[in-house]
Structure formats: C-alpha cells, structure tokens
Amino acid sequence: MPKTKAQKIEKVADLTLKLGKAKSVVFADYQGLTMNQLSDLRNKLRDAGAEFEVTKNTLLGITIENLKLKIENSQFLEGPTATLFSYEDEIAPIKILVKAFKDAQKGAVKLGLLDMNVLDAVTVTRLANLPTKLELQAKLVGSISSPLYGIVNVLQGNLRGLVCALNQYKMQREVTQ
Fold first, then answer.
1. 24 vs 174: CA distance, rounded Å
2. CB distance 142 to 63 below 8 Å
3. Torsion, CA 160, CA 162, CA 168, CA 171, rounded to 10
4. Which residues span the domain enclosing 161?
5. What is the pLDDT of residues 33-88, one digit of tens each?
6. Whole-number Å distance between alpha carbons of 60 and 77
7. CATH of the domain at 99
8. Three-class SS of residue 54?
9. How many domains does the chain have?
10. Bridge partners (DSSP) listed for residue 108
C-alpha cells in the first residue's frame, strides 16, 4: 500500500533525526540476503547499539538534501538500500555488517558517514577491519604495564641473586664444618 504524503514527511523527519543522532551511518545494498539473515543481522546490530532498516531511496535523498550533506556520488541511491545507524560505538556495528555480508557472500557497502564526513565503500570496509575500542584499550594497558613488569623483574633479580649467594655461602659453611 503506498504511503501518504504525511507518512512520507514523517519518515523524512524520522530519518533526519536518526542521521543527526547517529555516530556513524552506512548505506548498504542488502540484495540477496534472506529474511532470516536480515533478521539475525538486525538482532546482532540491535545488541551492538545500532539500527538497520530498509529505506526508500527517494526519502533518503530528500533527507540528505535537507541535511545539506555533500555526497557527490548519487549512484548509491540506486537499487535496494538499507541504512545502518550506529548510536553507541562507531565501528563495532560496521564490523558486524561487513562480516555478515562476507559470510553470506551477498550484500555490499555503498557509502558511509562518520561524524557527517562522507566515506566511500573501501574506507568503510577498512574501518571494519580495525580493532575495536576494547581491543585498543587492552593493547594500550599492556603497552603501559609492560615496562613496569620489566622493572619489577629486574629489581627482583637483584634480590634473587643475593638470596642465591647467601644460600651458596651457607652450603659452603656446612660442607667445611
């Protein structure tokens, strides 16, 4: 059933709100994915603090125009388009989306927005290959704590050496007595 003009205006307002609130946005071609795959993908993305919805290209074009985003490649609005809105983490939902497309061997990233900067499909895919915030934080903590462990080990080495020397001295005294 076709949407009324009021419903379309409401949808454009909703898309504008979501685009403004999202930390990152990815426009994707979901063609070829089954309903079960789409449903599983939506559930995983929801758990990651994101939303994945099929959007009508004309309404998406109007929304982008209203936000005055400078997207030179208007070809991304051709064919079926689904939009990923990431509200919490910028990269984690993109990782989930790209992995789902790779596993299904269907679907493709068309374009992305990160802090309202336009990213091409290759850049979005590269972002998906980056480590997560948690992984980076763990590496940072490991890098910071590694020298401390080294210092502790060196200081304990001197104590171990002293204990070994005293033990050897004690053993020599026992043999001579």
1. 74
2. no
3. -100
4. 131-177
5. 899 999 999 999 999 899 999 988 888 888 888 887 777 766 778 888 899 999 98
6. 8
7. 3.30.70.1730
8. strand
9. 2
10. 29
